[in-house]
Fold ATP phosphoribosyltransferase.
Amino acid sequence: MNDYLTIALPKGRLAEETVNLLDSHRIINKESINFKSRKLIFEDTKGKVRFLMIRNMDVPTYVEHGACDLGVVGKDILLELNPELYEFKDLGFGYCRLCVAAKRGGSNSYAHDMRVATKFVNITKDFFASRGVLVETVKLYGSIEIAPLLGLSDFIVDLVSTGETLKKNGLEEVETILESTARLVANKNLSKSKSERIKNIINVLDE
């Protein structure tokens, strides 16, 4: 199994788009993967590629520590976690924005010691510090939009695609912090043979 290339994929749309991309370039055969299954590991025996389906926040950890050779993860997560990885390629899909949002019709002014709900704690602190504002962060992993409505926070920092979820929960965008797309990342201690395989994959994708 050491000749297999192991790739960590975030469950959901990014995994499906990555598999479709690799399949379209004949790097793998996507028939070996069943996205409706509860399995977490799939193998393409012909292409000698193994896929791990894991949480997006865990992808950098699996790759950084050598459990996986490659991974696909959003730029937002790379900036939040700052892992020791090679970032090889912007895959061009999975676009989203990391935004500051607040209650519609409320005050959009920043102030010291205000509370901001987010799972992107490091990015959030750095962003507000760049505005000269020290904030208290409240770390949440889901349903972040309701935090201002219940008085848990003054603002939220969260990923936005269309903005419809914000609108439906009485929030509005205040400012965009960054834009993100899916990136192909790799472990820094790859064997020579795997480094060559990855170079070949990147060359094929670039074509």
Notes: The domain at 96-179 is CATH 3.40.190.10 (D-Maltodextrin-Binding Protein; domain 2). The mean pLDDT is 93. The longest strand covers residues 171-180. The chain has two domains: 5-94+181-206, 96-179.
